Amino acid sequence: MAIEIENSFEVPQPVDEVWNFLTDPERIVECLPGARLIEAVDEHTFRGEIGLKLGPIGTRFMGQIRFDELDAERHHMVLTGEGRDRRGSGNVRMTMKSSLRQGGNGGTRIWVSQSVALTGRLASFGRGGVIQSVANVMFGRFTGCVRQKLAE
């Protein structure tokens, strides 16, 4: 079962500065609550873990993400990721597409489109909107952190 999630946000920094931040896994992970980067498999693939609270279930996924497309000229990227719950409650697969465009007053507009598929016991939480709610909270925290880090 795939859940489609679309969001956008704007920051006051120029597009190249934002691109450099969003394509650096060590900086991105700082803005993902409960996430930890474990190792770089190669220059485009990274292993890590992230903890999430899905309704009454707290879960920790171990997995990897991969930058499948990184087009610095168009400021477009595609990431794929997959993870397995440490306790065997399910798996997650994600495809995320992001595009950056110069916005008003020299800032940058970021569009994010995700397709998230859960399997196993965790998939039941997608039906009630829990996944969407968790994604919205995480996105809000992520964008707040990105804004803060870029302002430093």
Outline:
The chain is of the alpha+beta class. Helices cover 25% and strands 51% of the residues.
Write up what this structure looks like.
It is built from 4 helices and 7 strands, in the order E-H-H-E-E-E-E-E-E-H-H. Strands 1-7-6-5-4-3-2 form a 7-stranded antiparallel sheet. The protein is globular. It has one domain: START domain (Alpha-D-Glucose-1,6-Bisphosphate, Chain A, domain 4, 2-Layer Sandwich). It is of the alpha+beta class.
Q: What class do helices, strands and sheet pairing give?
A: alpha+beta
Seen as an oligomer or otherwise, the chain set is: single chain
Mind telling me the CATH class? Alpha Beta
Q: Largest sheet at a glance?
A: 7 strands, antiparallel
Record field, number of beta strands: 7
Helical percentage: 25-40%
| CATH topology call | Alpha-D-Glucose-1,6-Bisphosphate, Chain A, domain 4
The total count of helices amounts to 4
* Global mean pLDDT: 89
Radius of gyration: 15 Å
How would you summarize the topology of this molecule?
Layout: E1 2-11, H1 15-22, H2 25-28, E2 35-40, E3 45-54, E4 57-71, E5 76-85, E6 90-102, E7 108-120, H3 124-127, H4 130-151
Antiparallel strand pairs: 1-7, 2-3, 3-4, 4-5, 5-6, 6-7
Could you name the key traits of this structure?
152 residues, single chain, seven-stranded antiparallel beta sheet, Alpha-D-Glucose-1,6-Bisphosphate, Chain A, domain 4, alpha+beta, 4 helices
